[in-house]
Amino acid sequence: MKKFMFLLTVCFSICTLSAAEVLPYNGEGSVKDVNWGEKFALYLPNRILDALDMFSVSLGIGPVVEARLMGTRLADVGAGYSATTFKLYKAHNRQYGIGMEDGWYWSFIFVGEEEFCVRDGSLLVDKFVECRAGVPTPEMRVYDYFEGPRDFWAIGGSLGLGIDGDLYIHPVEWVDFALGFLMIDIRCDDLTFDSFNR
Length: 198
Known about the structure:
Elements: H1 2-21, H2 36-41, H3 43-53, E1 55-71, E2 76-91, E3 95-108, E4 111-119, E5 128-134, E6 155-169, H4 171-180
Antiparallel strand pairs: 1-2, 1-6, 2-3, 3-4, 4-5
């Protein structure tokens, strides 16, 4: 019983101190108040969403040929071409829906070229264009940590010939999922009551 009480005290202390370290900043020189009732009320939905964020998958059909294997954008090998491929997305940063994509790319380790766009999609799918040559960097808008449509740190691959499929896991989201059990939200993507007023 002593061990259980000690473990419970340690867990409570870690939760309290960790939450104090990562309280949301309100941009005005002080820390925003945390609504603990809100955190507890939305605890389960936020853990489910965090679990779904750990991977992304998409399936498409159209004139496409590609093969890619990626261990983050710095270890990316493959090439592909797509002309108006229709895709169903469950993508990074909670993009769910349908869209059309086209373009081409090639990559060998961390060097490559790309002209790629996602367009004419549903409301929750980010439309974007990426044109680059050389080494991709996390500072590019498409890889924005909080809102970018692509994950710089993703691990997975794509394969397609007429029918195209992608499957990626997101290591940062795995960390966010694990820390979420301690009510730490490093991705700042947990639902709040304000999320339902938009």
